[in-house]
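Troubleshooting log. The previous structure file for this entry was overwritten by mistake, so regenerating from the original sequence record. Sequence copied from the archived sheet and checked twice against the printout by T.R.
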Amino acid sequence: MLRTSRRSFLKTTALCCAVPYFFSSKQPLHAASPNDRFRVACIGFGPRGLGDAQAFSNIADVVALCDVDSEYGMPKAKADKSIGRLNPDTYADYRKVLDRHDIDIVTISTVDHWHVKIAIEALQAGKHVFCQKPLTLTVDEGRLLRRAVRKYPKQVFQVGSQQRSEKPRFALAALMVRKGVLGKITKMTVCLGKNGAGGPFATLEPPASLDWNAWLGPCRKTDYIKERCHRSFRRWFDYAAGTLTDWGAHHLDFVHWALNLEKPGDGPTRITPINVTLPIPFNDGEPMVDNCFNVPTEFNFVCQFPNDVEVVVASQSANGNGIFIEGTKGRINVNRGRITGKPMEEQWYEGVVTEDDFVQLAHGQSFVTQEEVDPKFNSSFLQSIIFHVTNMIRCIQNGGTPLSEPIGQIQAANTCHLCGIAARLGREIRWDPKAERIIGDDKAASYLARAQREGFEIHDVG
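Regenerated output below.
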C-alpha cells in the first residue's frame, strides 16, 4: 500500500506544482529505492520496444511485457537481466495491461498503426504514456489524439523523438536557429535515406506465435506476407510511408521545433514533389500490386514553410542523413553523430545561446546529463533514450511538460503524412494548416483518414 499511496501523492502533487526546475540536486533517478520507482508496462517488442524497455529499466521497474507475437522480442526482454529482474508478466492483449491498477506508465513501441488507439485507451485508463514515433498514421488520427490529450491533462505524455534530449547537438542547433545565430533561415535540407524495393513476396500461413489479425488491427485485412510484418512493415503504405515517416518523424520534428512551429495550425502550406520513384505501378494513388513493397525508393520534395523558409525533404543529399540548415549569416549541419559548420567551429553561439535558453526550450526544465545515467548503460544511443525517459519521469514527479509532448509532435507528423500523400499521387499538395485540410484535391484529401476495421476502431473521446 505504501507504493500506491506514494505514487498517488506524486501524481496529485504534479498537478499543483508550478516550479520551473525538477530537482535542486543531481540525485540520479536510477539510484532511487524500490519504493520510489514507478511501475512500467511495455507494449510492443521489436528492436525499438526492447530499447525502450532497457531505457526505462534504468529508472523504473518493468513489470509487464506485451506483444501479439510471443516469440518476436519478449523472450529476449524477459532474459535481459535489467528488464526481467522482477520476472515481468507477459500478455498478448494490451487491454489486460491497461486493466492493471498497479501500473503507472505504459510504453507503446508497436507498429505505427496501433500507436494512437493504444495511447488514447491508456490515457482513459489513467496511465502516463511513452509512445514511439511516428506518433500517428494519418492526419485524422492526430486530431483524435489531440482531443484525448486535452481531455486527460493529468497524464504525462512523452513521444519517443529522443533527438530532442540531445543537448549538445539538436537542442543547440534549434537554439542557434531560434536565436538568430545563423541569421534569417532561408532553407533546410532534410535527408532521410532511401527505401529498398522488394517482391513479389509469397503468401504464407502466419507463424503460430503471431496473432496476425491483432497485428493488423485497424488496417484492412490482408493475407499474411512475412515482409509485411515486423522489421519491414514500414515499406508498405498500409502501415507507414517508409523513411518519410520513420526518419521523417525525427528530422521533420527538428524542423518544426527549431522554427517554433509546434502549435495546432502551424505547418507548411505547399508540398511539391520534384521527383519520386515508386517501386511498382500506382493508379491515382493506389498501388496496383499487393505483394511488393510500395513506398517510394527515392524522393525529393520542396515544402514551403512560413516566413519564406524552404524545406527540402530528400532521400539522399551531399550532407548525408540529418538536417542541413542555411541562414543569411551561416550554415550548419546536424545529425546524430555531430554538429558541424563554420558557426560551430568559431562558436558563434557563445554569449548568444545561454543556459536559460536551454531551460526555456525544455519547458522550464534542465536537460538530463550523462552523470545521471547508470554507468552500465554505456551505449550512446541507449543513453539518449534514457535522457528522454528520465525527462518524462521527472515531469511525472514534479509537474511540467516533457520535451517531446504530443501536440507539437502531431504537427511534425502531419508534414510527414502530406509528403507521403504527394508521393503516392505524384502531384503538389496545397495545405491549409489552420483548418488542417487539403485545398482543391478531393482524392488527396481522402488520404487524411483511413477506414478502420470493425472491432478495432479508434474512438473519439474528446
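The first strand starts at residue 39 and ends at 43. Archived copy saved in two places this time.
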